[in-house]
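Changelog entry: the DUF5643 domain-containing protein record was regenerated in this release. Current contents:
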Amino acid sequence: MRQLTKLATVVRRMIIVLAGIMLVMWAVDRYWPDKGIKEYIRLLEKDGPVTHYDVDRSFKIDGDTIIVKTMYITPTQVVIHYKDIKGDVGGWSLSNNALKLFDSKGKELMQRSSSAHSSPWGDEGFLHYEGLGNTINSSLTIRFELFDRNFELALPLGKEDDRR
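Regenerated structure tokens:
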């Protein structure tokens, strides 16, 4: 009986240690402010000068919160940094193709690629769209279109307080 008690104590302590390690990993992933974004911006600078807009606007779809965190505009592409926070862990996953980007004249900018990392509580990633070229735009618009779910978010350009 004594050996069984010792075994149960060891197993219980291992479970506590593993839960603690998982909690630390979750906290670092959830609250780490940089997550390699500075390195990512250095890669974008290969395209030319990078204009950075702090957007920090969000919308809700089916209990999920989609946050457009920042937007980077280079001479060859527009990149949007987004975060999708799940309302239900077992719910649907965000389809990157559902996020369409339009310029101020209504022309759709084609999505070239996307990258994201996922966790049980959501996704965070980057959407790459074709560049604006030489056209002058006062704003860009993100449209979320997926089945019967629709949302539109205007992203004004050129405001000094949003731009760095």
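Helices lie at 2-31, 37-44.
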